[in-house]
Amino acid sequence: MSTLAAKLAAGQLVITGELPVINGDGLATLERHLEPIEPWLDAINATDNPSARAHAAPLAVAIALVQRGVEPIMQLTCRDRNRLALQADLVGAAMHGIENICCLTGDDVTAGDEPEARRVFDLDGPQLIALTLMIGAGSYMSGRPIEPAPGFFVGAVENPGTPPFEVRRRRAEKKAQAGAGFLQLQLCYRPELLERFIAGVHERGVTKTCAMLPSICMVGSAGALRFIDAKVPGVEVPPEVIAKIEVSGDGDEACFELACEQARHALSLPGVAGIHLISFRKDAAIERLCERIGIPPRAEREQHGHSPSLAH
After folding, report:
1. Predicted TM-score of the model (pTM)
2. Nearest alpha carbon to residue 277 among 42, 108, 23, 31
3. The domain spanning residue 52 has which CATH number?
4. Domain residues for 248?
5. Local confidence pLDDT in tens for the 312 residues of the chain
6. Nearest CA-CA partner of 219 in 238, 185, 242
7. Which residue from 43, 58, 61, 44 is spatially nearest to 6, judged by alpha carbons?
8. Total structural domains in the chain?
């Protein structure tokens, strides 16, 4: 069992995050971004070509994290690989002790900077969850055995803030039924929509087996929020939120206070097991946010077994 899985099973507060994408100067860039965030995070995502733009492969980044004693969550998308390539990456991950896998369908290629790329989508997100669990249990999709069975802790993503909202809730339930043990939720700048989504899955009992981890993004300006609104698929930043940052007089501080407010709100919702922090190249903000809202460093939480309610 992965450490992340054990913590969630024990009802401990879990904080995940992700590195900025890695391009040139790879390992040095990874280490530079890792240093300020690693003491606060229980596991760190190795992202898979987010927004349909090519970057260092998630398997390579996840291996680098393992080598540095950090627990990775390796993302895999169906957009870029057929079932053979997905199985190869999963078995390759198991070779290096990578246990946490986050399964995504993937943004369409039209969201990225190479829209002429050929889509794959041999499988979809729930099918990839099922495939990952099959590999983890010791069998390729063809039925060929894998010995010993590698075992995986499988998660997925969902968007709580994009219509049709009932479809989103049902998709989350479907992913949990397929075997997802956690959902990292997409950014949501309308708190009432996050509340609605969490209430829906909690009332349906989904949170008993699948941990909800709402995402919080730390940026430094109204311009960055406009970029998210325009360029991040499935995320809307309301005009009034951007306007509030613009007139604040200190965009960086106003954005930080917005992130703190979002984190407190997310952790107050029944069924939320923790939060997923995205620093948008403001890595020191993770430590500052955790300290501001009362989340201890990872080592302290591991020692004392903090629950999500203790961070409110």
Report:
1. 0.94
2. 42
3. 3.20.20.220
4. 3-311
5. 899 999 999 999 999 999 888 998 889 989 999 999 999 999 999 999 998 999 999 999 999 999 999 999 999 999 999 999 999 999 999 999 999 999 999 999 999 999 999 999 999 999 999 999 999 999 999 999 999 999 999 999 999 999 999 999 999 999 999 999 999 999 999 999 999 999 999 999 999 999 999 999 999 999 999 999 998 888 999 999 999 999 999 999 999 999 999 999 999 999 999 999 998 767 789 999 999 999 999 999 999 877 776 544
6. 242
7. 43
8. 1
Give 226: exposed, middle or buried? Use CB within 10 Å, 0-12, 13-18, 19+.
middle
Instruction: Quote the CA–CA distance of 42 and 153 in Å, as a whole number.
Output: 14
In angstroms, the CA 287 to CA 39 distance is: 8
Cα separation, 276 vs 286, in Å, equals 10
What is the DSSP track for 243-269? HHHHTSS-HHHHHHHHHHHHHHHHHTS
C-alpha angle with apex 53: 50 to 57, nearest 5 degrees? Answer: 70
